[in-house]
Amino acid sequence: MHFLQVTARALLALWLAVAPVKVFAGSMTLLGAGGGSAVVGYQGPGDVVSGASVFGSCARAYNAAYANGTNPLCDLVAITGGAVVCTLRVKTNGFVDLAANYCAGTTPSAACAAASGTQCVIAKIYDQTGNGNHFTQATLANMPVLAFSVLNGLPSIRNNGVNGILTSPSLTIPTPLTMMSTAQRTANFTNTSRLIVPTTLATPRFSFNNVANQMNFNAGSALTASATDSAFHGLMAVEPSAGNSTIVVDGTATSGTAAAKIPISACSRWPTRSSSRWTASR
Fold first, then answer.
1. What is the domain partition of the chain in residue ranges?
2. Whole-angstrom distance, CA of residue 73 vs CA of residue 61
3. Are residues 166 and 267 in contact, defined by beta-carbon separation less than 8 angstroms?
4. Which of 114, 150, 176, 278 has the fewest CB atoms inside 10 Å of its own CB, making it the most exposed?
């Protein structure tokens, strides 16, 4: 998964699911492959565990069915003025197409370099689950930047500490609930950097903590786990219907804080606020 509220520097993906999901301890399966090489029999996270409520990424496909060579990933506009640049599309190998000349007759990176302000920002990340829960941002100043070739040749959503909030439609997702992201925090290490939160900033919320090298999942009470700053991680938080919450960082699970069994209600933030890169799914 490549690419709610974040205070980090880069994000590749985000995912939300109604049941505990075992796939995506992170960085590894989802980001481990480069975007340019051919993949035989592409398998995305949605092929391993289906049923996500929302999955969004500017870098890869949710499942093999979505990787049809034409499906959209993200809408890009110029950072200055907001003129439409193009829509990133997925290749049949499951990764974003960065080589074809489909952005005004050139590649996405060349089109963004030629755009006003010489950069693109992201106005929309498409929900690839078919549920229509797209992440959008109407205000140009609040759109996150698209950074090219961040990890294994794949692009990332980048927050410069000012912009970087994308919002889904109002959702109510009951427990058991799983949140996943591939992200890194590269600045503001003692500020909370939110990855996935309700628009009210209530619980449950999944964040880089206001302590360096630490994640925080709050589902009524806080649970923390180690996650080294300035490095990408595969991140997952699980809120069960009964028992303790769990944070998984790169395959290592930390459990122990009793969840309050709070459903996500009106969840709409997928922000990146203090220097972060991310990816999301449900």
1. 10-67+129-136+152-281
2. 8
3. no
4. 114
> 3-state secondary structure string, 112-140?
HHHCCCCCEEEEEECCCCCCCCCEECCCH
Asked whether the beta carbons of 85 and 78 are under 8 A apart, the reply is yes
52-66, 123-137, 162-176, 177-191: the lowest-pLDDT one: 162-176
Cβ neighbour number for residue 189 with a 10 Å cutoff: 20
Residue listed under structure tokens 């964040």: 207
- Is the domain covering 10-67+129-136+152-281 a CATH 2.60.120 domain? yes
CB atoms within 10 A of CB 259: 26
* Among the listed residues 199, 220, 258, 225, the one whose alpha carbon sits nearest the alpha carbon of residue 208: 225
Residues 182-228 pLDDT 10s? 888 888 899 888 888 776 656 688 889 999 999 999 887 889 999 99
- Structure confidence by residue, pLDDT tens digits, 128-157: 999 998 989 999 998 999 999 888 899 988
List Cβ neighbours of 278 (8 Å cut-off, separation of 6 or more).
3, 6, 8, 10, 11, 12, 13, 14, 156, 157, 181, 182, 183, 195, 270, 272
Residue 52 pairs with which residues in a beta bridge? Answer: 17
